[in-house]
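re: that complex we talked abt at group meeting.

here r the seqs, copy pasted straight from the sheet so there may be weird spacing, ignore it
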Amino acid sequence: MLPRHRRFTGLIVVLFGVSLASFFVLKSFQENLLYYFTPVQVQSGEAPIDREFRMGGLVVPGSFKREEGSLSVEFVMTDGGASIRVKYTGLLPDLFKEGQGIITRGRINASGVFSAIEVLAKHDENYMPPKIQPLTEQT
Amino acid sequence: MNLKSIYKLGSPPLFYKLCIVLEPWYLISSILLIAVGMYGGLFVAPPDYQMGDAFRIIYFHVPSAYVSMMAYVFMAVSAIIGLTWRSNVAFSLAKSCAPIGASFTFLALITGMLWGKPMWGTAWVWDARLTSELILLFLYLAYIMLHLSIPDRSKADRATALLAIVGVVNIPIIHYSVVWWNTLHQASTISKFAKPSIATEMLWPLVIMILGYTLLFAAFLSKRTAAELAVREKRTRWLQTLIVGDKNNA
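got the structure back, here u go
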């Protein structure tokens, strides 16, 4: 074996070892790396009940209610499987609307209502001009 | 191209001349492409149906993020070649990548924060995509600082090369973070094998901007590598004759 072959093999072994190590590290932190839980996970009890967590999903169309003359709002979030009622008081981001994907941070109470202290809008990866939007709404 | 002509690239005088010759072409073509891409992205492309004109920051954010990762892969490959063949040219390339890559990473983070504040409602969250891109910035900075902290150049070259190679595992993590975990950051719009999820009249300026940014990176890299090689080879005859020869011509 030439010295340069030995060095090259050594580097590949190092790279492989580091990849393997980081794979196991990421695997074991899988749950902590999840930025949010889905309503299905929340309903099945995977989300913590004793502390704050984040929940991501869509705002159910027609579920949005605003308390007259205040910043308190109420809406239902879903991921297609489960639906959870959310209460929030505060400013909503520009992209917030019914049917939009959002992420909320807060706690779930005993009656299954999520009281949010932060609402973020999640934008999807689709970009399109306004004129073809009706087409996608039909589908 | 046969193996011999690849080996020739390892010769500092030849690579130095190659950098000097190619740099203006990279720079001119990148300025032209970025000008066309900016015109297309900021004036021709229609506004987004949800975000209006605010989506246009994609024309700066995505190319910066792409180059930030491509530069790192380039740096790691140069480091492997440098360590294997003990090549001064490869080490010079790797060293020159770091500050350029760090700048593009910084741009990607800043443009993302500017967009995130109005659209998401927050400039920063610790989700997997944003955190791994921030780690990329720290890897570049660690590379630069490690190089500065070791006085012996060949030792510094080898130590930083190892850092660059180990850090490359972060690149697939950045890329797949939006697939592997739930993140606030959206999934990839164009870097997938399926049809891009962006309308064609919005896509072409983005592709041109990515090409322009890549050529801009090539221009910066050529310039920095030529300077690095000149510093490293300052006592050699080829560089001295090159400089003195230039003086005689003038």
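couple things i noticed - The interface with chain B takes residues 4, 7-8, 11, 14-15, 18-19, 22, 26, 30, 33-38, 56, 91-96, 103, 118-133 of chain A (CB under 8 Å). The CA atoms of residues 60 and 76 of chain A lie 6 Å apart.
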